Amino acid sequence: MSEPITYASAGVDVEAGDKAVELMKASVRRATRPEVLGGLGGFAGMFDAAAIARMTHPVLATSTDGVGTKVAIAQALDKHDTIGFDLVGMVVDDIVVCGAEPLFMTDYIATGKVVPERIAAIVTGIAAACEQARVALVGGETAEHPGLLEPDEYDVAGAATGVVEYADVLGPDRVVPGDVVLALGSSGLHSNGYSLVRKVIGAAGWDLDRDVQEFGQTLGEELLTPTRVYSADLLDLIRTDGIDVHALSHVTGGGLVANLARVLPPTVFARLDRASWTPPAVFSTIGRLGQVPRADLERTLNMGVGFVAMLPADQVDAATRELAARGIPAWALGEVSAAEDAVVDTAHEVVRGAKGVEGGGVQLVGDHPAS
């Protein structure tokens, strides 16, 4: 052996990692809460739990997720400051489903080569989304994996913890016949179904810099649109006097129907009407380009509905106004009936539960209005 082997010659640049931390410090400092103890660089993030200890019956809620193959779009466009909204949305918006307030989050980035500016851009996006969600970013890790990942490749993941009073937990046991299913609009594709989307645009020969009139921007810009982060707005809605949210569902992988079925009791049936909304152009474009069957499209993508809430019919107008004031479009998507009284359209599939959950029946009927 002619020369000694060092960590740097093996492909790991410790100094680059230190530089990335310096570049992200200011952004991370803004993603905090008063309960955070210590600062950036500790072995563990610390959070003062005194307020939790004063709760009557605190229940902790936790979630972890990633962004999936949407990172391939960010890498292809060399734009990395929005992918953090996708990560934070996928994690904290799962926590708020049970009514819990997300408190703190950590992130993990694995890359083939640490480019400080790129890592700082990713974390800056994560921190900005945490700030919007009122969640503290208390720590993270960047790992350099030469030989496992290509120099320009990376993946991101995160985990968060929240808390809710036991008496305030939302879920299937609160849903009753007569409830209305309220849809909350998505910002686009969010972070699910990108393996299908990338397959379709690849087969069609569309480049990411292609201007698409229906989108009002390039294909790449449309595909990289950040996930809407709902948690802070939904917490405010839950806490609004006169509005009694019974259950929430985050529409991610599996689509609208399956995710709604997960938060309904087996004793009820929800009938949803496609005629109540027109999905944004990106969904019809993907369907048309790939000749994707409607059932497959709806099982894979959110179709313009990022969240749903179940609440009494006489509170729908107030909830819609509250959400509109926060910039979130919302509309009545369907209604809940007792399972034995359900009017089932035999021409459409009924889904009962998903991902191991024995839930209520959900059926999506009708057709979307012409765009």
Question: SSE layout and pairings?
Answer:
Blueprint (H helix, E strand, L loop, with lengths): L13 H17 L5 E2 L8 E2 L2 H4 L4 E9 L3 H8 L5 H13 L5 E11 L4 H18 L2 E9 L9 E12 L14 E6 L8 H11 L6 E2 L4 E2 H5 L7 H8 L8 E4 L4 H7 L6 E6 L7 H10 L3 H7 L4 E7 L4 H10 L4 E9 L11 E5 L2 E9 L6
Parallel strand pairs: 4-5, 11-15
Antiparallel strand pairs: 1-2, 3-6, 4-6, 7-12, 7-13, 8-9, 10-12, 11-13, 14-15
Helix pairs in contact: 1-5, 4-5, 9-11
Subcellular location: Cytoplasm
Catalytic activity: 2-formamido-N(1)-(5-O-phospho-beta-D-ribosyl)acetamidine + ATP = 5-amino-1-(5-phospho-beta-D-ribosyl)imidazole + ADP + phosphate + H(+)
Family: Belongs to the AIR synthase family.
